[in-house]
Amino acid sequence: MIDEAEVAFTNIEVVLGEAPDYPAEHAGGNWLGVDPRLVDELIWMGFNLFSVANNHGGDFGPGGMLSTLHEVRSRNLAYAGGGETLTRARQPGYLDAPSARVGLVAASSTLPAGHAAGEQRQDMPGRPGVNPLRFQAEYRLPQEEFLQLQAIARMVLLEQTRSDEIKHGDKPDAEGEYRFLGAKFLLSEQGGMTTHPNERDVAEITSWIQDAKRQADMCFVSLHAHESHVELTRPAHFVETFCRAAIDAGADGVFGHGSHVLRGIEVYQGCPILYSLGNFMMQSSTMRRVPVDMYRMYDVDPFDSTVADIFDQRQDQETLRQDPIYYESALVRLSYSGKKLTALRIHPIHLGVASPRPQQGRPLLAQGAMAAKILGDLKRLSAPYGTIIDRDGDTGYVRLA
User: Fold this and answer.
1) What angle, 0 to 180 degrees and rounded to 10, lies between the N-to-C axes of helices 143-155 and 158-167?
2) If phi over 0 gives left and psi between -120 and 50 gives alpha, with beta otherwise, what is residue 335?
3) What is the pLDDT of residue 183?
4) Mean pLDDT of 224-237
5) What values do phi and psi take at 191, rounded to 5?
6) 329: which strand partners?
7) What pTM was estimated for this model as a whole?
8) At the N or C end, where does the chain have fewer CB atoms within 10 A?
9) What is the DSSP letter of 400?
């Protein structure tokens, strides 16, 4: 099915080049540097449009990002989301398909320290990295809890931290507003929490969407976002806000990923927003080498142990390696007549949660009860967006207006 498509998109969530540079201090969970030939398997499967914007793009520092860029460029792949500077990371990639020229803009909101690309100026070079979409958390507290928060902050000497933030560009607090540790707290009758995308990032990213819309027949957006609201299967508010803003700016669809689980499908202004299709492949437990930091992360002796010891320990400790929902996914096929979406088909996939480690994480089409379960989950998760999914055997169909 992938090979039959004119345009087939996926997210390359590894550094291409096995340990190409010193490992970064902060990684996206574990350090994913792989043999560049693995990307040739994605090409063999039929993928031809790629994002490199995710929380593992900087696992091996700027040198790792440069290695990834070298590998995708040497294969003449259409990609977006990473670059030598922030502008290069924000710019679209283009695929000349038989029926249309397709642009892609890719960003990541999940960003370990040091992974975001930086801009250059006359006297300082930029920083290789991924295209960032930052966000602001906003917490609402009733008066009693709001006053307690301020008292606690003063008690543990956070006032100095807050003063430093204001001196470095943070705005002074308005009445009923308190900022510290990167979050905003508001006085409110009812408690709650929400998130907002960074306005400057949204403006810069959507300007490149508008650019791609003029330079190509169609434009799609990729967003890597682990962030959730209340439940892991519900994207954070800022994710929904940004995805709709991308459509408003001219994107023909948004491809979300990062949460490792299925999230809902929204059809907004006639355009698909796939908030997350789960994992298409998840084989990080067969890494050949990882830094000392990861051994210590799992309390494994870094000098008298092997990588298998780490992954045995992780298997025992992490829900991610045990819960079947992390191994349930979907392949979505979009059909267009001109620029009008005419069909959205869903093919459930499973990655073999009970398979041995060497086979676990490989995608297989789900059938029968498993297919029904995956389609049922997607139907439930998509309902809040007004999306109706019908089932025909092992295939799902989104009802379009």
Assistant:
1) 90
2) beta
3) 80
4) 95
5) -75, 160
6) 349
7) 0.92
8) C
9) P
